[in-house]
Every structure is written in structure tokens, then in C-alpha cells.
Specification:
Layout (H helix, E strand, L loop, with lengths): L3 H8 L3 H9 L6 H14 L5 H5 L7 E6 L5 H16 L3 E6 L4 H12 L5 E4 L15 E4 L8 E5 L1 H14 L5 E7 L8 H12 L5 E6 L6 H10 L5 E4 L2 H13 L9 E6 L12 E4 L2 H16 L8 E4 L2 E3 L5
Parallel strand pairs: 1-2, 1-3, 3-4, 4-5, 5-11, 6-7, 6-8, 8-9, 9-10
Antiparallel strand pairs: 10-12
Length: about 325
């Protein structure tokens, strides 16, 4: 018996596109629709009637799409999202995509089949063409061109705070350390805020960025230390990046905070990886999570939310690295 994946493969489209054709949901180009219908006929595909009849019911399940459940920030976010959903009588389906676009699209297909009522998601992949603005979706950090609501921390202000705190701690040659993601994310505003604040102080900061995924490579941090031995203040785009920099600095005899002050971003202070305790820009994780759920539930109820970006203030949490 053929499956929906077989139809998608034969038609040369994504599974979500096949689902939209079957359920007559969202917009599909006429040429694409014809290809899908031809593939359905050729394979004698019969849609799952159980899934289609589910449309007559109202799901109380919400999917949370995360690139990883191992990262402490994502874990904390999931905790508060589940708690807020439970308060409103909804259950959580945790979707660990591993950053793979095909897995993300599979979960969106489940939403289109009404197996879940809505999605709260973090994605850094190019999947915009497969995501309909008509579905109940709230994004964390990622901006879509379509009318999809985004909840994020005030990344720009966080970068400005980081620069000021490094100067206050005595840094004369501040640097930003990050990566260049393949798609735009509001997290990129951390660098922009840092650079803008430096300019206001008459400083030309070091900006050191590698390709996407470079933050998991210890060699990236060693290369920075070799190229910029004069940097005495560092703002890393995440706490994990800051922690890896500190480990790399130890291997070349650079002391923190004596030789270089370090500030991260996230506020995952309870993680045992952080020794010494990291100075950081703390994201309001609980408020972000609960806000995202409340906005999603409005969408599920049919209320118009539109393309709205909710930025929640951050704060500096001093530690032992500045």
C-alpha cells in the first residue's frame, strides 16, 4: 500500500504539499497540484481516513519543535511551555528535529492533518515555502516573511548591555564572537547591538564570525585566540560559546577574567559546564515561553494576531568572568 511519502517522492514535492492538496488547505500552485493528483492516481493512494476524520474534532495537543533537547536553554523553554499549556488544558508533543528540515516538515504535516492544534517552533532551516501563514504557529527567535508571530528576547539591547558591561569591567579591546546562520534569526541582533554601542563609545570592536555550526568546533576558538591575542573583552553569542572560549583560553594561558573579560548570552547558569560562573545576558525564558503559548492559543481560537514580533527585555547577570 502506498504512503503519502511515496506520493510526495513521485510528484517531486514535500509531504506537506501533498497533505495540502488532499485536505484542500493553504495555497498550492495549479501545476504542483496537478502533479500531486497525477501521482495519487498512479499509485492508487487512499488517504488515511482516520486522519481526515480527525478534522471533525478539536485537538488538545500542541507540538513544540526544537532543534535539540540537550541544550539547557531549550530544555528550560520546554519546561515552561509545557506548564503553561497544562494550565489551559493542552498537552505537549515534543518534537526534537535535530535541526533536520525533513523532520520539521514532517511535524508541520501532522499539524495540517489536525493531529495537533498548533505549533511553537524554533527552526533555522529554509522551510518558509512549506509553512502556511494560515496555520496556528508561533516562532521563537526566527522571523518569517509571512504573517507568523515571533517571540524573542531583546537581543539588540542585550548586545548593547554586553558592550557597556565589558567597558565597565575595564576592557579596552572588546570583541564579538559568533557564527553566521544560514537563515535570518533575531539572535543576529546581538552583534548589531554590540557594534552600535561600541560606535557610540568611539570603539571599533573585533567581530569574529565563522560559518554555521562553527561554535561546536574547538578549533574556531583557538583560531580566534591566535588572531586576536590583544582582545581583552569578549561577548559570545551564547553561553555555550562563551564556555567553550574559556576552555580554549586556558589551553593558551589566557586567564579569565584577569586577561580577558567574558560575557555570554542566555543565562543557563545552573549548567555544570560553567566554572567559573559566567557573566551573561539573561534571557527571560519563562516569560518568553508563557507569552508564546498565550499567543498560540489565541490563534487556535481564531483570533487575529498577525505578523507581530514580541521582544521581551533582558538583564545582565554578573558572574566571575568580568
Amino acid at each position: 500500500m502506498s504512503s503519502i511519502k511515496d506520493v510526495a517522492s513521485l510528484a517531486g514535492v514535500a509531504v506537506g504539499t501533498v497533505s495540502r492538496v488532499i485536505n484542500n488547505i493553504g495555497s498550492v500552485k495549479p501545476h504542483t497540484r496537478d502533479k500531486v493528483l497525477a501521482a495519487i492516481e498512479q499509485l492508487n493512494y487512499v488517504p488515511n481516513e482516520v486522519a481526515r476524520n480527525f478534522k471533525m474534532q478539536k485537538s488538545k495537543m500542541v507540538a513544540l519543535l526544537l532543534p535539540s533537547i540537550w541544550h539547557p536553554f531549550f530544555s528550560e523553554l520546554a519546561y515552561y511551555i509545557e506548564d503553561e499549556l497544562d494550565r489551559h488544558g493542552f498537552k505537549l508533543m515534543l518534537c526534537n528535529s535535530g535541526g533536520k528540515p525533513e523532520k520539521e516538515l514532517y511535524y508541520f504535516d501532522m499539524l495540517l492533518q489536525n493531529k495537533v492544534a498548533g505549533v511553537v517552533g524554533i527552526t533555522y532551516n529554509h522551510i518558509e515555502d512549506e509553512v502556511s501563514a494560515d496555520i496556528p504557529l508561533v516562532s521563537i527567535d526566527r522571523h518569517f516573511a509571512k504573517a507568523i508571530t515571533c517571540v524573542t528576547s531583546d537581543n539588540y539591547e542585550g548586545g548593547r548591555i554586553a558592550l557597556r558591561e565589558l567597558l565597565k569591567a575595564g576592557a579596552k579591546k572588546p570583541a564579538f564572537l559568533g557564527s553566521r546562520p544560514v537563515v535570518y534569526s533575531d539572535t543576529m541582533q546581538r552583534k548589531e547591538g554590540f557594534v552600535h554601542e561600541a560606535a557610540l563609545h568611539g570603539i571599533d570592536p573585533i567581530v569574529y564570525e565563522g560559518p554555521d555550526k562553527c561554535l561546536d568546533d574547538a578549533g574556531f576558538y583557538r583560531a580566534f585566540l591566535e588572531e586576536h591575542a590583544d582582545a581583552d573583552g569578549l561577548f559570545a553569542i551564547t553561553d555555550m560559546a562563551a564556555a567553550m572560549f574559556i576552555e580554549a583560553a586556558k589551553t593558551v594561558g589566557r586567564r579569565v577574567p584577569e586577561d580577558v573579560k567574558v560575557i555570554g548570552y542566555d543565562g543557563i547558569q545552573d549548567h555544570p559546564y560553567f566554572h567559573p560562573v559566567l557573566s551573561t545576558i539573561r534571557q527571560p525564558v519563562e516569560e518568553m515561553a508563557r507569552t508564546a503559548v498565550k499567543l498560540l492559543l489565541k490563534k487556535i481560537d481564531g483570533d487575529h494576531v498577525g505578523q507581530e514580533t514580541v521582544r521581551i527585555p533582558v538583564q545582565f547577570r554578573p558572574g566571575e568572568t568580568t
